[in-house]
Amino acid sequence: MQSLRIASYNIHGCVGSDGKHHPQRIRRVLNSIDAQIIGLQEVESGPDCRHVLQQLCTERDWQYIDGPTLYRNDADYGNVILSRLPVKEVYRLDLSYKQREPRGAIDVRIDNNGNLLRVIATHLGLSPAERREQVRRLLDWIGPPGEDPAQTTILLGDLNEWFLWGRPVKWLRSYFGTTPSPATFHTRFPLFALDRIWVFPVKRLLNVEVFATREAKSASDHFPVIATLKED
User: Are 185 and 202 spatial neighbours (Cβ–Cβ below 8 Å)?
Assistant: First the structure.
């Protein structure tokens, strides 16, 4: 049976758990993950980190879709989707809340051998009220479940939700169904399932696992999380 490999990874600006800025470590981890689609958070578009990702896309035939949320003089900062499959449509959603740090999501439609995948990559805020509002807006944006039965919808990213019983997780579970939530943070001693992948319909989801290699442990303060999906 064929399968589809999808990942989410907070790369922490290419700064590892040892405090060193080392973009090439991130490049090696992404190469090792070897997924068809990867959502990245905390991507700095400064010359080092952006160059490494663009170089990786050239080497591995990934398409690079960026969704910056912070604009600085020296570099932008935000979310990125890497896809080996053809990207047909791209939307960007502003999830900023009051005076908090700007947040957003990238929503793409991807052609998987004639079948449509909808992939939404995001990085939610640090305050509970902020996350509740952002999840409400995301679910409103996604629309009713099963509206298009031929489409698979995937929501992935760093949700920053520390508690599995928090309201944002309950709302997502009621929409997508129960999904495994292995701990991804902190790489020194992972206790919290901050990085998540949700799939609708959930019957397509084969498994969710943490990519806890030795290099991934040092490359960022988050481990990547990987979902394997059944092909249509």
Answer: no
Rounded Cα–Cα distance for residues 77 and 3 (Å): 32
Q: Kindly report the CATH number that applies to the domain delimited by 3-230.
A: 3.60.10.10
Q: Which amino acid is at 163?
A: F
Q: What share of the chain is helix, strand, coil (3-state, %, to 5)?
A: 25, 40, 35
The single-letter DSSP state of residue 150 is: T
Which pairing describes strands 151-158 and 115-123: parallel, antiparallel, or unpaired?
Answer: parallel
Helix (H, G, I), strand (E, B) or coil at 57: helix
Angle, helices 23-33/47-60, rounded to nearest 10 degrees: 30
H or E segment at 132?
helix 128-142
What is the enclosing helix (H) or strand (E) of 5? strand 3-10
* Interval 169-226: pLDDT, tens: 999 999 999 999 999 999 999 999 999 999 999 999 999 999 999 999 999 999 999 9
SS (H, E, C) 178-191: CCCCCCCECCCCCC
